[in-house]
Amino acid sequence: MFIARRDPSLAALRRLIGALAVIALLVPGSSRAGAPPGGFADLAERLLPAVVNISTTQTMKPSQGGPELPQFPPGSPLEEFFKEFMERQQGGKSPDAPSRKATSLGSGFIIDAAGYIVTNNHVIADADEISVKLHDDTVFQATLVGRDPKVDLALLKIEPGKKPLVPVPFGNSDDARVGDWVLAIGNPFGFGGTVTAGIVSARARDINAGPYDDFLQTDAAINRGNSGGPMFNMRGEVIGINSAIISPSGGSIGIGFAVPASLAVPVLDDLRKFGKVRRGWLGIRIQSLDTDMAENIGLPDQKGALVAKVDPNGPGVKAGLKDGDVVLKFDGKDITEMRRLPRYVASTPIGKKVEVVIWRDGKRQTITASVGEMPEDPAEQQVKGKPETPKPQAGKDGILTIPGAGLTVSSPTPQLRERFGLDDEAKGIVVTEVKPDSPAAEKGMRPGDMIIEADHKPVRSPADLGKLIEEGRRAGAKSLLLRVENPQQLRYIALPLAEGKKK
Fold first, then answer.
1. Contact assessment for residue 246 and residue 206, using Cβ atoms and an 8 Å cutoff
2. Is 377 exposed, middle or buried (0-12, 13-18, 19+ CB in 10 A)?
3. Among residues 304, 306, 300, 310, which one has the least CA distance to residue 385?
4. Contact 33, 180 (CB under 8 A)
5. Strand 280-281, strand 372-373: pairing
6. What is the dihedral of CA 346, 351, 355, 356, to 10 degrees?
7. What is the pLDDT of residue 74?
């Protein structure tokens, strides 16, 4: 039998390392955001009075949430039969019965002793009445100060009278690091005053909830009813408003999302001052860059936001922005991803003059823009968007086939305009066919798209496009930058031009 021998000096060293590790965990301040030595009890006791339960009441018509009564001639036997059936389905109430009340639950927290309370917009959306229950079970009726569906925030107000309220401050969510401890308090499934702990799992998450997504992700347990509740750091500061979870079952699986305080505070300030949010605006439509686009315009990487269209009446055109520019930096902030630009612009004070670094004609340029106020229907939005290559083949009636791209285009005849719902004044050529698995299909082109520019030159006929394709191939270009429009969106597409190998 083989018996391992223990080296006394090695064992002593291990004991020393273990002791030092324990000391490091116990020494106060040894970790910037470590868990308190005694747990979270003291912190939770201090914060619980600031967190409230929110219940809403909404008036619903009898037909809401269930099938409607089919229409039959008055007095017909079928009318009576279906009326009785509907009454049974709706608990004895006929479709003509009085409206009923529906209730929902959520969370919120006090930010001002004067009675201002923060929650999610979706918690109070369409509510007729809003009630707020404090930690000591005192109930107040709340009024809506303002709400912002784009960031999913709402500001409420109660009149506490002589009742003392315990507000909590906001912290700097930009300082939060992945791995920092956080505490979530809320009203999950109606169980008020529930405290859960976890860490910041990730930052800057985009879950397609709105145009300014920049969520903090946490593994602290968040469930239905936690919406609108606070996420605290270990100093007791609110760094996020719990808003959403990802779960196949509806319960927490450790993937929750919170609106960061850095995004929420300016919104709440505007709601308090104006009852609505006033956002900065450049008046541009933007889209992301792919590898082919970046290479086509000479950019060394895919960072930046491509300007698909400049509003003729917006601040961008006054600043000198043009279609096809790429915004690389805005007010000193690098645009590492396209979706960053709308948030930066929206959070900029209205009227502020900012430097905008752009890529145009193969080089960086700097212009100055004065940020305007976003209108109700803003123009700035995100635009979401081999085989042998024979020459383009011209056919009858202004039709052009580009086999290497898998694309067929035509002059916009009245029949095609009617077929694809195109405006009579729309200029360009219309895509009539896109072959599956072709380069054009991979770039998202589809029948009904209108090509209005190629290589920044107007396209008014299929022949114009064919000429520019051939010029590009002769020049050794790998792609041709097309400006494509349809009734839903406007975008740029880099159409590959590389010749394939002959079979």
1. no
2. exposed
3. 306
4. yes
5. antiparallel
6. 40
7. 52
- Catalytic residue, chosen from 55, 104, 107, 122, is 122
pTM of the model: 0.64
User: Among the options 227, 243, 252, 410, which is catalytic?
Assistant: 227
Indicate if 456 belongs to the active site.
Answer: no
What token pair was written down for 198? 């976890």
Give CA–CA dist 141/403, Å, rounded. 67
* C-alpha closest to that of 338 among 286, 279, 282: 286
**Percent of the chain whose predicted confidence (pLDDT) is above 70:** 78
Model pLDDT for residues 5-34, shown as the tens digit of each residue: 334 444 554 554 444 443 333 334 434 455
Report the distance separating Cα 225 and Cα 251, nearest Å. 11
| DSSP track, 481-501 | EEEEE-SS-EEEEEEE-PPPP
The secondary structure element, H or E, covering residue 217 is strand 215-218
Candidate list 55, 104, 152, 410, residue with the active-site label: 152
Give the contacts of 439 (CB within 8 A, at least 6 positions apart): 386, 404, 405, 406, 495, 496
Domains of the chain by range and CATH? 173-274 (2.40.10.10), 280-382 (2.30.42.10), 393-496 (2.30.42.60)
Annotated binding-site ranges for substrate: 122, 152, 225-227
Interatomic CA distance for residues 477 and 419, integer angstroms = 34
Q: What's the pLDDT tens digit per position in 115-158? A: 999 999 999 988 889 999 999 999 999 999 999 998 999 999 99
Dihedral sign, Cα of residue 343, residue 205, residue 167, residue 57: positive
CB-CB contact of 350 with 306 (8 Å): no
Annotated binding site: 122, 152, 225-227
Contact 385, 485 (CB under 8 A): no
